[in-house]
Write a structure and sequence with these properties.
The chain is built from twelve helices and three strands, in the order ααααααααααβαββα. The protein is mainly α. The chain folds into two domains: 4-139, no CATH class; 156-225, Arc Repressor Mutant, subunit A, CATH 1.10.10. A three-stranded antiparallel β-sheet has the order 1-3-2. Helix 1 (4-20) packs antiparallel against helix 4 (49-57), helix 4 runs antiparallel to helix 5 (64-82) and helix 8 packs antiparallel against helix 9 (141-153). The longest helix has 19 residues, at 64-82.
Amino acid sequence: MISETKTENMLIPAFNSSLFDSPAMDITTELLEVGLDSILDEGLLKDIPILGVIVKTGNLARNIYDRNLLRQTFMFINSFKDKTIESEKLIKYRDSLYKNPKKAEQELGRVLVYLNRFVDLQKSQFIASAYRYYISEFYSWDQFCELAEVVDRLFVSDIVELMQLGRAETSVDIYHKTYMHDRLTALGLLMEDLQRYYLPGEDEPRTPERLILSDLGKLFCHVYDNTL
């Protein structure tokens, strides 16, 4: 049995290599969810270093925790590779990780922590897209962490509700809001629309009691739309 310390020392380099040096694999989400045993039996994951580490160090026959981490990590890697990143920025980021192991530990380790928490594969797809945006210098590391933290706290049904609102570009009447809207507001994805307006014959302006996407909500929807 490989020790826990040795496993931790192996994970980050293996994750780094998996992201930047290993090919994407044509395995569907459905097969990953229900056919993990057959994938393992056929050795289809052997070319992805970090998945090999997880398989070697975990008791996948009985450990649901490790099996879920395997699924989430595979989904993240393949989703990350699904769309291209400008080669100059990709090489720049990859080199920064090789030259700075502390940065690799901080950033790749943080991603693994989130993957370990997720149950729904859609969340791993989302943060793969968010990570591409970070590497592409679309936003900062702190903003990536904020998006990852938000998706960790949401239910998938919340994301569906938010995306419907974002794509429709409409507001939500507060009198008809649900607990989903409360949660989305608490996480900073929705906010009250404070724009005032005047009705004919009235001297005092009115403030509509409605919810709209915040800047964070708009960013979330933009990134999520690019996971598909």
